Amino acid sequence: MIKTLHLQGSAKEVGVCHGSQGKQEVMNSLKTYERLFYVAKNMSWKEAREQALLHLNAIEKYDLQMIEEMEGIAKGAGVEFEDILALNARSEIALTNQGEVFSDGCTSMAVASPTIKDTIIGQTWDWTSSQKDSLLLLDIQAESKPRITMVTEGGIIGKIGFNSAGVGLCLNALITDKRTNEIPLHLGLRAVLNSYSQAEAMSKISNGQIAASGNFLIGYDDGNGNGMVVNAEVSPFGIDYVGGEDGWLTHTNHICSNVIKQYVNDMNEVRFEDSIIRKKRADQLIKASIAAKEPINEQTFERWLSDTFNKPSSIHHFENENAPEYRKVETVFSIIMNLSKRKALLRIGLEGEFEEIDTMTKTAL
Question: Would the pTM count as exceeding 0.90?
């Protein structure tokens, strides 16, 4: 289904194991992004590495262990540190003014109290189909950190998942016209998953700390029946919360916050025929289930994330054959996380069934 790596120890040890056991997936990621940067932006891999190095000083001040983990991946995979840094800064590189901008898509959905008792979040991750071969399921027990279950691309140390403290995270990429040399977005994702509470998670991504824009859907369940979800639209100039007042929320790939729009321009060329329609459909599905007073659980999320209304630009996204190569995206994986139970369901690709991933209890590190 998906290669699972159990990683533990120091940051360097976690990285070396990631790089050595996931070497093929790391090499696949490098191949994918070297081609995408060239096709969409006419950018060589050497130039991409130089762009990534602009973030190095900020990362060293933010969390030196992230540098050590990326160094470990490079050592384990037999590549250079700059290669791994470029993978982790790939969103920022994709948002440079040179050439075409491109970004992965996705639809995130969440339901919590008072709508239901549990705190459940989930999303599709829509991207180039070649990255299916780069996926890794990481079970990480780093020193002095909560245990993390995360689905990521080989070589990238932060992405979508949840932790043993009950913090969970979905990501919606946002394409804008501005970026800085601060913390790459994917490292911000890892910082959230290293957190023990929603408040701690927000402190890691607020105040312009993140170099590019994106929506961080962050859920938290304290294990005592208390849970909450927020959509934090993050930009290099600050954050804003959008939606969620009724115990549920959704997000896709366009900016919803009028505050964020004051500082950056939404450059998503297909937001009206793709992203906005997907969000409206996600809203509709949740409202329909609430109106019907049906139980909302993981199986409900399976149905929602499998929705093909407006295909190919549906929640369960199919490739648009008429789009340029860097815009041809499909649902690469879908994930549902019950933060109250600390368990998740995962489906790889467009076909197949959701399967339970339970790294938290089935494997002792």
Answer: yes
